[in-house]
Amino acid sequence: MNEYENNEYNSQQGQDPIPPTSHDDPAQQPGSAPYSGAGTGRRESPYAGSPYEMNHHQVPPQYNYRPQPDPSYQPPKDPAPKPGHHSGKRILAALLAVVLVAGSCGATAMLVNRRWNDRTQQMQTEFNQKLTDMQKQIDSAKKSTIISGNPVNSGDSLSPSQVYANNVDSVVAISSTIQTTSFYGTSQGTATGSGFILTQDGYIITNCHVVEGASEVSVITHDGTEYPATIVGTYATNDIAVLKVDATDLPAATIGSSDSLNIGDMVVAIGNPLGTLTATQTVGYVSGKDRDISTDGSVISMIQTDAAINSGNSGGPLFNMYGEVVGVTSAKYSGNTGSGAAIEGIGFAIPIDDVTSIISDLIDYGYVTGAYLGVRVSDTDAESAAKFGLPVGAYVHSVDKGGCAEKAGVQAKDIIVDLGGYEVKGYTTLARALRNFKAGDTTTITVIRSGNRMTLDITLDEKPQAQQATAPTEDTENMPNEGDPNEWFEYYRRYFGK
Fold it and tell me: What number does CATH give the domain 370-462?
């Protein structure tokens, strides 16, 4: 094999061609003539002698050989897994995962269910407690709390609708048949009013003027039941009357305290306005306290309210926002003044604290057995008192002969300024001071006589049945008929309090 063939062979075998090993040939030396290669079977390069002819000493080109894959070669296969080896582990792992998920879901469900049951039980307990509290409140409203004069707060303040729902059954309508005699003969008429149930066994409270002179009296409850009523007793001085019906288990009202009221407190009146609008509720506020109102010759200290009070409301209850009776609605001012000014939103109620002892006496005795002074008094005129340096108190016009006041040394023209430690500023405060004592009690009375202050010992009498009133003797002044603001101010100051 010649050199060319050897190179070709080596090329075919993936080896680098072997360059000529002999360097003795002058043609291989630098600067010698090109090698012709004649007789070797190799063609002479067409670029022989040109500058592009490759030098035999240059590195021959490199050939990248990639062996061709044998088409008959097959890669060995992985041995098949033994049955039940890895597949069993996979199944076991899957089962464990399912069990864990199911157990977690079950535990979560049990926890949620337990919490839900606990919450449901708690809500049911709270609901039952609220129902129990409400029932207790309703039951307490039906109990008789006669003449305690103390507030019976049942909890939080109620809304007007709650006051109405809890107390409307204890409010009654009253119808009185009244016979009047005149020049033309005897006529018969009907007077209507309101009242409230004081006790479960049928004692009813109303105004004296609602049943005064009545030959027959009927009481109609909220459910429409009508009862004939008898008049147990009346007391015109405070415009209070007690009736009795033959019934049991009536829904009695709860008695509160009028002394606990403040100006601006909300109040509710329920009654029978116009004699036809039964169980009507009106809502307002306490506009004033200790308003000295003259009614039929008597001066009564009243609560002023802007809750609407109309004809037929007389004798009905005035409630505070705890559902307790704090007053007995009695009067209102309406219409126009002499100067044409309209009067609106001025109603009055008798404070319940002022009549609790009176009601007790009327129930027990049929008349008032309270302490009695035996004097006729009026309020001292503040303007005159300031002008002449006189004290403010109850001015004595006359003294009953043989009465306790005369025995104690009280004289006409004395000014009473204190009774048993209670300050007296006029007729109303004197009447209130007397309510703190019973007949037969011994106390002190302080008077101003000719500028001298005197304190006298006195043993109080019992009020005579035939003389249940000690009204002031001062004359009632007419309303101003002019629009002078000073006249109106003086009128309201004298007759409606400060």
Answer: 2.30.42.10
Residue with the two structure tokens 């080596």: 10
| 311 labelled catalytic | no
Crossing angle (nearest 10°) for helices 86-142 and 160-167? 60
Residue 459 tokens read as: 């043993």
CATH architecture for segment(s) 143-369: Beta Barrel (2.40)
- Tens digits of residue pLDDT in 26-67: 444 444 444 444 444 455 555 555 554 555 455 555 555 555
Query: What single letter denotes the amino acid at residue 223?
Result: D
**Does the active-site annotation cover 209?**
yes
Is residue 336 a contact partner of residue 342, using CB atoms and an 8 Å limit?
Answer: yes
Decide: helix, strand or coil at residue 452: strand
CB 243 within 8 A of CB 231: yes
0.70 exceeded by pTM? no
Which of 170, 258, 314, 357 is catalytic? The answer is 314
| Domain edges within the chain | 1-62, 143-369, 370-462
- Catalytic residue, chosen from 154, 194, 209, 257, is 209
Whether 171 and 222 have beta carbons less than 8 Å apart is answered as yes
Phi then psi for residue 204, to 5 deg, are -120, 140
Q: Reply yes or no on whether 314 is catalytic.
A: yes
